[in-house]
Structures are given as C-alpha cells and as structure tokens.
Amino acid sequence: MSKNPLYVAEDDFIIKARQLIRDNHLRGLPVMNDEGHVTGIVTIQDMLKIASTRSNVTVAGFTREVPLITEDCEAEVAAKNLLNERCAILPVVESHEERHLVGVVSPIDIFKSIDPEKMPKKTIAEIMNTNVVTCSPQDLVTRVWNKMLEEDFTGIPVLDEKGETMGIITRFDVLKRGGSRIGRDERVKSKDIMKVEKLMHTPLYNLRPEDSLHHAADIMSKRDIGRISVVDDDKLIGIVDRYDLIKAFLGEDE
Question: Confidence class of residue 186 from pLDDT cuts 50, 70 and 90?
C-alpha cells in the first residue's frame, strides 16, 4: 500500500479535490468525515464531470462507497476488489469498526507487487482489448475530452493519416492544462481550444501481438507506464493496460 495518502473531507469544496488530483497525478482520494472516519473515495472521473462554474459544490455529494480493507488483507483479495469494483483506489483502514485511514492501494501498487517472471505464458493477443477508440492529431481536445467522459477512458491513442500510432493523449495531459473546463464551460472561447497534437505525448514503446505477458509487464514496470499500444505492420490492432495484466495474473481474464 501507499502510506500517508492525501485525502479530502466531506465538506471540502470539489475544486480542492480536483486540484489535488491534478497536481499530484492521482486517480482518486479517500474521503473523511468529521470524526476522521473513511466514508468512501472521490475519483478523477468525478472531477471530469464538474464544470468550473460549480465551485461551491462539496465533496460529500460525489463520494463513492467502496470496499475498505485492512493492512492484513491479502494482496490478491485487494486486487480482486479493485477489479470487481473497477476502483481507482481502495482505502486501507486500521479496522472496519474505526475506519481510520492508514494508506491506499491502487492498481499501480498491485502491479508493482507482481513479478513479471510469474506472468502466465500467454501472448498479448490473448488478452489485449481490440475495441480501441482512437483520435487524430488534428482533432479538437474537446472531442477527445467528451469521449473520455462518456466512456471512462484514461487515454486515447493518436493515429496519423496512415493509421499508424504516433502518440497518446491521456486525462492528465488535459487536466494539467486546465482541461476540466474544456467543452463544459461556456466561457472557454474557441480560439483557446487546442488540438490533440498540442497535448499528446509520444509513446516510448509499442507491443506486438505475439509478445509475451512477461515482456509487457517488464516494460510497464520499468518505464512506469499504464498502457501500451499493440501494433502489427505499424497498424494499431489493440491496447493493453495494467488492469488487463492484473486480470491475467489472477486468472480473471478467462
């Protein structure tokens, strides 16, 4: 688990939670009540739904209940809870009765605990997601942002006119440029709306469908990246992320 995590109180304004998530590249924050007990989490997805004009909204209205785990919980149980709930994080508490926060567990924490050498002997083609939504460098960020909102995507590959991968744009790419206003605040003028090419970043690696899960896990661990495009003859055919590899490791991908 990650110790001493950032958190927000139920009566904090949502803009504070959004700022913490954006500035610290987090996917979620635990929420505490007046008695110092964990009541749930607020996620980056919640932040994407808030327009900047709603600055007086508090965290309480967007708190999501999730399973709470204790320090003696087995990592496999925590991982299955994350997968089943599709949680950004799971709060770790001293006890289920007191619910005092001691840490959080995220898919990143779970993934870091996996030994790539112990990944199932499967190929990327067997677990990759082939239904990949893409965008072009000339697309407006508003289009991509709204798609992230609608489909709960964390990143979208960017393809050139030949259909070849040239980069990826993620939620954090947009958030760190004030993207929570894009497409949702009428005060954003058209001249201020950027194209994808201004925010995207170039992926360090692509995978081939015949590559092993061990190879994918090794790259993602060493480079601290959450998703990799899968290409064949320079054409995008799929994508693999941490969730896919965790599911495969636990045998939940069958």
Answer: very low
